[in-house]
Fold:
Amino acid sequence: MTTILWTVFVTFFAGMGAGLGTGFAGMSAAAVISPMLITFLDMNPYLAVGIALSSDVLASAVSAYTYGKNKNLDIKNGLIMMASVLAFTVVGSYVSSLVPSQTMGNFSVFMTFLLGIKFIVKPVMTTKEDMQAVSPRKRVIQSIVCGVAIGFICGFIGAGGGMMMLLILTTVLGYELKTAVGTSVFIMTFTALTGAVSHFAIGGMPDLTVTVLCVLFTLLWARIAAKFANKASPKTLNRATGVVLVVLGAVVMLFSLFGKGA
Structure:
């Protein structure tokens, strides 16, 4: 009984962190769920990532639906970017297998923390009118080029897709924050599904109880965060996103240290 309660406790907080990160910032659940399952449930790292990716699928899908319903989703350019991301994730993964780079795994966590500070100190105040001023042709080219860069980096490092997309959508492509997050979670729905299927096909099926709990808790908190984000003012959303990212980045870094010291 104690083991079941501990599993529920760990998966609840893992799902809460992942769901808030997904709903507010389009962050991949893998950045939060994986280290918690590995550290506190002593789970195989490969299967932990698979569970995190499967949790990402529904959470990202319901978040994308919420953002889309509020007209904060760029489907056309999102599909173009997604094709580039998926193709070059494979390329990056192959190059990574040739060049050992385990220490780069912490990059996405550190970037989460820094991106959170960025949103608090220098909020994204781009409007939809500013976005529409960019020519469609230029936007398509930008989406392809940025998708290539995001896919390669994610495949090489093995994580950080949501954070890379949010950073590039807001700073390079000049997206308004809500549309950036909506487009990011839309893309993450498909990239997470691809990753989860490949993980389970290669590594086998994970613990069903842990998987179901992580999926449900992540879905619940992602829905809550996405609904709040779409109603919030740009200033409030920037601050809320920044705080969530800073806290999650700091907590995951502590979990990583805790796991190494155990």
